[in-house]
Amino acid sequence: MSSEGINELKLRLRDFAEARDWDQFHSPKNLSMALSAEVAEIVEHFQWLTEEQSKTLPKVKLKEVETELADTFIYLVRLADKLDIDLLKAAEDKITGNEQRYPVDKAKGNAKKYTELDG
Fold it and tell me: What predicted TM-score, i.e. pTM, was given to this entire model?
């Protein structure tokens, strides 16, 4: 999604909340709690599945996960809007930092945290 697309979504969500007088409830605290609850709903779909089962969800289950991902994304966009954070820039900055912390020659093929990689 382009920055224009995320901005359009942000404004649409803002308008949606304002039209319903829900903006009063959309504090960073409340939005982060709602976001956490939605992430837990995603996790529920994968709990007790094998690795292989988690990769091959039935269509009905996949649609349910899609809905939960959308809920999560919506709360994330609303939270970023409330905190005036540019999500795309934040993600780009994070990826750049991760590229430095996890050089390919040291990180490839393992799951160690950057502080555990040989210097």
Answer: 0.89
